[in-house]
């Protein structure tokens, strides 16, 4: 199973709306919103786009601040919710039964796994032990940003995850992200290592049991809309086995966008038009006459993410 961490934004929703039917039982999105006020529109948008398997992540807010109405609306739309285990007592009484039918806990390692010393783990064990050895309990282990330092301590991370497994948790998702927050220094083509994938591989190679894979796609886990910068450049973010291929050039007009699509389909690592909806769309832009328009920022994000989903599902 694949558990991508996604924003509830038009591009990500569009990427999934173009997913073939056979992806439905393979992708379980973990949906994040930036602001509490965004839940009102986010919940029905998710439910109409990907109703089966979607998880609304409440762990990024203090659960006391998430109203009973929001919690109830998530459940009423048939979606699951993920919470911080330390805040389970703040679940509203009206959703406890639904949560306990499909309990999902997100444990964030933040920047340093050394915070999980024996005392910290004992506290978690006390909270989580009633949910251990329960088949439908899902544990989301989120590293945040995967960098060279995190890769170098992958065996330490594996030991912590092994502790959770020894408690009785068999369904564990391991998530991290490594796409940079900005591409402002890239012009032309550049390969960016998928350190999140490398970290996952190193951790799983140190374990005797399987982990589900999670990531942040072509978005940094440190992404902040308040820091988004406009640029006069256009880019394609193209996920491959061990790296992202980034094609970026100046200009955001139709000609620049079509030229970049041409660069992609001529690149030796292009997967071919049959690989995904996005790959077909890029190919169609290069036909004479074009069979697809240049698109806008929403469409471009949809292309990046749709191709990324296909890459993870079929090639890792």
From TrEMBL:
Pfam family, one: Beta_protein
Protein name according to UniProt: Beta protein
InterPro entries: Protein_beta
Naturally occurring in which organism (per UniProt): Paraglaciecola mesophila KMM 241
Source superkingdom: Bacteria
């Amino acid at each position: 199973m694949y558990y991508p961490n996604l924003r509830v934004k038009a591009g990500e929703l569009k990427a999934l709306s173009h997913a073939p039917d056979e992806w439905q039982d393979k992708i379980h999105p973990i949906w994040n919103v930036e602001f509490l006020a965004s839940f009102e529109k986010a919940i029905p948008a998710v439910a109409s786009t990907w109703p089966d398997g979607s998880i609304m992540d409440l762990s990024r807010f203090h659960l006391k601040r998430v109203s009973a109405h929001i919690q109830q609306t998530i459940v009423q739309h048939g979606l699951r919710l993920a919470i911080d285990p330390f805040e389970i007592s703040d679940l509203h009484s009206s959703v406890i039964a639904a949560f306990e039918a499909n309990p999902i806990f997100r444990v964030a390692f933040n920047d340093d796994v050394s915070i999980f010393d024996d005392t910290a783990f004992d506290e978690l064990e006390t909270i989580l032990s009633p949910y251990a050895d329960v088949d439908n309990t899902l544990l989301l282990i989120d590293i945040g940003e995967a960098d060279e330092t995190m890769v170098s301590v992958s065996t330490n991370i594996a030991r912590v995850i092994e502790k959770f497994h020894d408690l009785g948790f068999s369904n564990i998702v391991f998530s991290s992200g490594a796409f940079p927050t900005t591409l402002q220094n890239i012009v032309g083509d550049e390969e960016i290592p998928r350190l999140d994938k490398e970290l996952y591989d190193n951790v799983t190679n140190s374990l005797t049991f399987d982990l589900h894979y999670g990531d942040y796609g072509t978005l940094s886990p440190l992404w902040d809309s308040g820091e988004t910068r406009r640029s006069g450049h256009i880019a394609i973010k193209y996920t491959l086995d061990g790296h992202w291929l980034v094609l970026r050039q100046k200009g955001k007009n139709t000609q620049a966008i079509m030229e970049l699509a041409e660069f992609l389909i001529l690149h030796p690592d292009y997967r071919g038009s049959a690989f995904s909806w996005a790959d077909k769309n890029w190919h169609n832009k290069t036909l004479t006459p074009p069979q697809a328009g240049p698109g806008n920022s929403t469409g471009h994000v949809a292309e990046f993410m749709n191709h990324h989903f296909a890459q993870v599902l079929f090639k890792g």
